[in-house]
Design a protein that fits this description.
This protein has three helices and no strands. With about 100 residues, the protein is mainly alpha-helical.
Length: about 100
């Protein structure tokens, strides 16, 4: 009987602690974000900056790759010609259909 009481008491104590932690986390969230408009606006701004950073980063990486390939255009054995065709294809302006 003592084991059962000890087990139930431990379970109640654990549930109370988990409930208290959940309440503290919810209070912290609602203190920082009083209304949903602020949350949505913050996520919108975050998404815009994430998208802009991704496009900017991809542009820099592609420019570096093309510049690096341009260094290898003088390689003999047909590899240089192949790389030069890749660089020319990337550098030529797109034609309007």
């Amino acid at each position: 009987m003592k084991k059962f009481v000890k087990k139930v008491t431990g379970r109640i104590k654990k549930d109370n602690e988990n409930g208290a932690r959940t309440a503290v986390i919810e209070d912290l969230f609602y203190d920082f974000h009083r209304n949903r408009h602020q949350v949505y606006m913050m996520n919108l701004i975050r998404g815009i900056f994430f998208g802009f950073g991704s496009v900017l980063g991809a542009t820099v990486v592609i420019a570096l790759v093309v510049g690096l390939l341009n260094l290898f255009t003088d390689v003999p054995g047909g590899i240089g010609d192949f790389i030069q065709r890749i660089v020319d294809a990337v550098n030529q302006p797109r034609s309007k259909v």
